[in-house]
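Let us begin with a simple case.
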Amino acid sequence: MSHTSVLIVGSAPNAPEVASWDVSNFSAVVVINNAWKAVPHWTHFIHPEDFPPERHPSVIPQGCMQIGADIYVEAQNKYGGFVYAGGTMAFTSAYWALDAFRPDVLAFFACDMVYPKTGATHFYGSGTADPLRKDPTLVSLRAKARRLQVFAAQQDCAIVNLSSGDSVLPFPRCDKSGELHDVKPEIYDIDVASEAASLERQFDYFVPSGRYWEQIDRFEADVIAKIDATWLRAFDETL
């Protein structure tokens, strides 16, 4: 049986390192927003609706794909939508990849969501830290990452972080030259994860269009915090 692994690359300062990698073992290389500029051998370019057209690749190479909201919203809705998943592209791209490739391994690089107060925040210099914007879906990035792990594990997919520096992502670390075939999903408490999923269904913070910000007044901070705390508890963590 073939092994499928997908690499997701963000725009952290270490993103250009991927340019020198042998990525032949990855079934797809998904670049978020500006990351296509740092990764010449990308296969999928994914971006939100408000990503300026002038910052898109001028040409989509043959065999590659551009992934916009017209594609990823439907995919993410299969996993409960944007409010519960966290409305930032690192997570959106991951849910899209889970649906599109059904991978055995999902590997993140340069998606660490750590932004120094001085110096470069992105490989191209200083940029806006999208995950740090005031947004009720992004209060606990760690909880959203743990939720993603559960949904991936339910598909027998392991998630790893190939970055070596500080990271918000709690995923197991793996060296890019390591054997991804042997990586298994991290163990979590199935009963607690079921409790978190039940809470999501109870409150039904689901917006089919994906434009959850148009209904922002619906979402109560204490409800989201309770759900986030439950996802964390599935990995024996607390907010």
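The second case is a distinct protein. As before, the sequence precedes its structure tokens.
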Amino acid sequence: MPRLGVNIDHVATLRQARGGREPDPVQAAVVAELAGADGITIHLREDRRHIQDRDLRLLRESIGVILNLEMSLSPEILELAIVVRPDQLTFVPERRAELTTEGGLDVVGLRDRIAPMLDRCREHNLIASLFIDPDPAQVEAAIALGVDAVELHTGRYANAAGSKAIAVEFAALRRASEAIVAAGIELHAGHGLTLKNTGPIAAISGMKELNIGHAIVARAVFVGLDRAVREMKDAITAASATNRTAIAAG
């Protein structure tokens, strides 16, 4: 069954809107962990628009589950990560003007920048993942770099309108997943996943981790964070059980 990584960036966004101390993303992480989250994901952006350096340090001290740090190809943030030592680094694209991550990392075009970052991670025994679109060229480039994990960007699937478009995007994700798993690389996915669309992604063979934030935090406004995390965890569990049953049936 895939691990559930709960992204708490939006809790920090709400805090930063007033410039105060509440809501505390570290407290949110503890609630999510107690509710069954297998990991906590944060994106320390170069402009520090939501998560702050202090949050990263406190989370490292406070939680017992996987701490996944999303970051751009920033040498400065990598050096901070080497000191704090999150359990996993996920390299993502980053633009100052974007509201949220808009697509996958261009591994093909940025190979010469990515490779030294991965070497630095290996030097310090840090697990590294690349967040990419499910495009064959990007998948091939990520595999060639020998990265520890690949997180597939599920945004196009999540935003597709109509059954045909959804089927096309899901097929692309499944093909990319097969290539990643066949290469012996750990398979992750995330972006735009909700209670309604997570099931098929969770059921992909070899899926090890799903990182979900906005849908959980948005749901928490109405039902509380504890219940929102439990509901998503239940959805992943149900999808995984259905997949195991289907495989057993042949």
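The radius of gyration is 17 Å. Residues 3-249 form a domain with the TIM Barrel fold (CATH 3.20.20.70).
Keep these points in mind for the review questions at the end of the chapter.
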